[in-house]
Amino acid sequence: MDNDDGELFGENAMMSKWCVVASLVMVTAVCAPAARAQDVPAEYQQVLSTLGKQGDFKDNVLKVNIPRNDVKVTVAGVATPTPFGFGGWVAMTKGDGGHQVLMGDLVLLQDEVNPVMSALLDNGLDVTALHNHFFWDEPRMFYMHVHGQGTAAELAQKLKQALALIGKSTGGSTSSPAPAPTPQNALNTAKLVEIVGTQGEQNGAVYKFTLGRSDLKVVEMGATINARMGLNTWAAFTGTDEKAAVAGDVAMLASEVMPVLKALRQNDLDVVALHHHMTGTQTTIFFLHYWGTGPADKLAAGFKAALDQLGKSTAPASKK
Fold first, then answer.
1. Distance between CA 66 and CA 224 in Å, rounded?
2. Does the residue 137 lie in any domain?
């Protein structure tokens, strides 16, 4: 509270009333933004109820996170926390004609892939990609992209059966040791921010940068595909300044693929996958997954080198 607020009443008068007013102002200031942040439209509240999940609404997108906290994964012998790259998600936003567009990325064990795929296809949803994000991961993890359109209620019902199959497998329950506890501030995140040139977010032992492609106008069935719908580039860091690991995904135009590949390899970052996530768009977006270990500042410099290859050319909006 600024000192000027107290001077409205005088330094020695009406202190009791000032305390009441200050308390009310503070409650309003704290609670009002929180209420607005949780202002999920009614049709999306029903989606969350149907799925039995929590979600948030921002930038006209409902996003539901589906982290694989039930699986303990090591990558090349490095124990990795869930936020490092094992958090699935689904998202909805409005498209043409009042219908909703659904996109998502489900993180699956090997023996979950085909049962989940069948549940999606049998309920009228599309599977648009299936791939790895890592080499040398134990247990092996796969990433399935899902797409659909319809009313929000219809999409939630179609999705519910597939989501119910995730986490029922025992394939990853004992294959890998739990990650060793890592202090939340083990990384000098200020240094990472300085190198990358933008702020990230801390999630437990992981510091993650997520950057949208606002220079690209991608539309799917009338719905704008923004960062929350999956059109983004990201890098997740964990470990310590001296011994860190990074994993991430780069969203690229066709003309950017080779420059990004070269930038990553010149900085000793391993490329582990190159693929699409969406089908049927006039402007094809490619996604490249990478991984590396070493000093955190060196890894951040490699990520920055790849970032610097993006946005040098423009492309027309994709339509469907």
1. 22
2. yes
> Does residue 36 sit within a domain?
no
**Pick from 118, 103, 117: nearest CA to 148:** 103
Give 79-119 pLDDT, tens digit per residue: 999 999 999 999 999 988 888 999 999 999 999 999 999 99
Q: Same domain for 118 and 159?
A: yes
Residues 170-207 have pLDDT tens digits of 665 444 444 455 555 689 999 999 999 999 999 999 99
Q: Which residues contact 5 (CB under 8 A, 6 or more apart)?
A: 18, 22
CA pair distance 58, 60, nearest whole angstrom: 5
Residue 21 falls inside a structural domain: no
Query: Residue 209: helix, strand or coil by DSSP?
Result: strand
Q: Are residues 57 and 90 in the same domain?
A: yes
Q: Supply the range of the domain harboring residue 232.
A: 189-307
Place of tokens 């060793």: 180
Residue 146: inside a domain: yes
Biggest distance spanned by C-alpha atoms of the chain: 73
Q: Which two tokens stand for residue 110?
A: 């090997």
User: For the domain that residue 220 is a member of, what is the CATH number?
Assistant: 3.30.70
Task: Provide the angle, in degrees to the nearest 10, between the axes of the packed helices 152-165 and 110-122.
Answer: 150
Please list the residues that pair with 58 across neighbouring strands.
61
Going edge to edge, which strands form the sheet with 137-138?
78-80, 73-75, 137-138
